Amino acid sequence: MKKQKSKRRVSVKVRLIVAFILILLLPSVTIGSISYINASKEFQGELKGSALQQVEQLDTLITREIRPIIDQAKYYSTIISGNWSEREILRELDKYNSIEERVESVTVLQTGRELMRNPSFKFEDDFDPFSSPWYKGAIENPGSPVIIDPYISSTNRNMMMSVSSVLNDGSGVISIDINLETITGLTKSIKVGENGYASLMDGNQTYLADSTIENGTKAHEQYSANMSGKEFGDFLVTEDGVKKHIFYKQNKLTGWYVVGTLLIDDITSSTNSILDVTLFVLVISIIVGVLIGYPIIRSILRPLRLLGESAAKIGEGDLREKIDISSKDEFGKLAEIFNKMVDSLQTVIRQVSDQSNALAASSEELTASTVENQKATGQIVESIQQFASGAEQQSDAAGNSTKATQEMQDNISMIAKKADNATNKTKQALEEVQIGDQTIRKAVEQMHSINLTVKSIEGAVTNLGKRSTDIGNIVQTIKQIADQTNLLSLNAAIEAARAGEAGKGFAVVADEVRKLAEQSAKATTQIAGIIGQIQIETEQAVNTMAAGNEEVAKGIVVMNEAGQKFSSIRDNVIEVSNEVEEVSFAAREMKHHSNLVADSIDAVQQLTQINLAGVQNISASTEEQLASMEEIAASADELSIMAERLKQTIQQFKY
């Protein structure tokens, strides 16, 4: 399982690149999508507003064109009466027609008189003016002028309409025919959006003017279903596979419907162009972001790679490795601290190596001294045994006392000499052990110094992580400012687009501001991602320092154990030294007593039993001393083995 997990690990480089791309893409796509949606909605709103505005303008134009004619019909219905002669009426009609260009003709029809019309026109013989729509309409509505539905003139084939009114005295009807070419021409010339158009329909949804449909054509049923009985509104319709958005308003004066047709394809094509621009800006932003981010990623990965390579070599025991990072940032400071740590390790290893060599030499000398002491003690034991044997023989044969006494003197002299030698060797061993103990203490102090250095590095790396967090907060603030600037520049661009030609210069400036804001936002996002990775690597460095601290603590424990061993050896050597001094003192006393024995040979027989008991006690003490020497030898051997292991461990390092 561990091997599989290690295979799945992704390198820092890949993680940085993936994080950088994600941080770059997500805000860019989000901002681009929001900008596209908002711009599309804004553009659609402008198109719809433009269509409604054109419908309103055309409605106002119709009212402005028709209202004066109605007022004029009402005026003439008040002044013309049955008292006027036909000549007076015709003269008044001619005068009016000459000053009003929109009027095609003016007609007055009175009971008992011929039809009076200006300009004059010869009608067919079967023409009955009293059955005309304009006459009937006026008679049916005597209170106010009546607008007759538009019709196509039989004389010039133009679209016409009539306004008729009953004369105040009831003698007849006046009708004014006006040419609608101005209104229909203007209607056909209006464009709604890119390819949309305006139309004019009567109250029954019959086309009066349209750029694509012949006048008099009945509109589709969907128009009647959505427009009948309503004064204004809008709806969607599909004609011949073309989707349209219809805006309409009923003219209150005429009852006609002013219609604006906005093609859905115009909206789609316009929003598609916005989408193309948004995608282009997004791609350019990503490319620029990658070009900017790649050197930054390399500047982070190179120090990490150098640190990793150097740490790996040091882990293999090569303390000669140095990190060459000359930058003045946190990586440079970390490299400087790392190199100082390596120098400290080199110093410690050299000192431990020197002390281990001295310890090995001292342990060898101690071993040699112990062997000599064992030999001397063995000889002492043999001498004492011989002395005991002589005492027994003296007990059995007093005649050989002189010879035995002489042998005893010789043996005692040899014992004294060996005891003195053992005392000197023991003191020398004690000095070597004390030197070794001091060496171990120095090594422990040096390990404590290393521990303090590692903790200092750990603190520096922790402070680096805190500084990275502070920088991240500052970068977040800069990003928020850039986002606000981007929104303001977008609003400014929309306002500049509404201003048309006058806002082009301002639109360019707003666009530049928006680009700078986007670049700032992207740069701060990149920095935030880089700082986040630095914090992760810093935490890993802290964990590594903690592991190194644990290893140093283990080294301190091992050194303390070695110090305890030296203390034990020192105590044993002191004990042996005391015992050897006691033996030496006893040997000198025995030599003194042997002289007394030579002078008092007569008393030997009496003291034989006493001497025999003393010799037995000395033999027991000597055997105990021999056992102690064996323990010292074992401890010396163990110390020698530990010194050799320490040397082998140190030899693994190169410095």
TrEMBL record:
Alphabetical list of CDD domains matching this protein: HAMP, MCP_signal, PDC2_MCP_like
GO annotation, cellular component aspect: plasma membrane
Domain HAMP: start-end pairs: 298-350
Matches recorded under Pfam families: dCache_1 (PF02743), HAMP (PF00672), MCPsignal (PF00015)
Entry-linked InterPro entries: dCache_1 (IPR033479), HAMP_dom (IPR003660), MCPsignal_dom (IPR004089), Sensor-like_sf (IPR029151)
PROSITE patterns (alphabetical): CHEMOTAXIS_TRANSDUC_2 (PS50111), HAMP (PS50885)
Keywords: Cell membrane, Chemotaxis, Membrane, Methylation, Transducer, Transmembrane, Transmembrane helix
Keyword Ligase on entry: no
Compartmental location: Cell membrane
Residues annotated as domain Methyl-accepting transducer: 369-640
GO process terms (BP): chemotaxis; signal transduction
Main subcellular localisation: membrane
Annotated TM spans: 277-297
Keyword Transmembrane helix attributed: yes
Annotated family: Belongs to the methyl-accepting chemotaxis (MCP) protein family.
Protein name: Chemotaxis protein
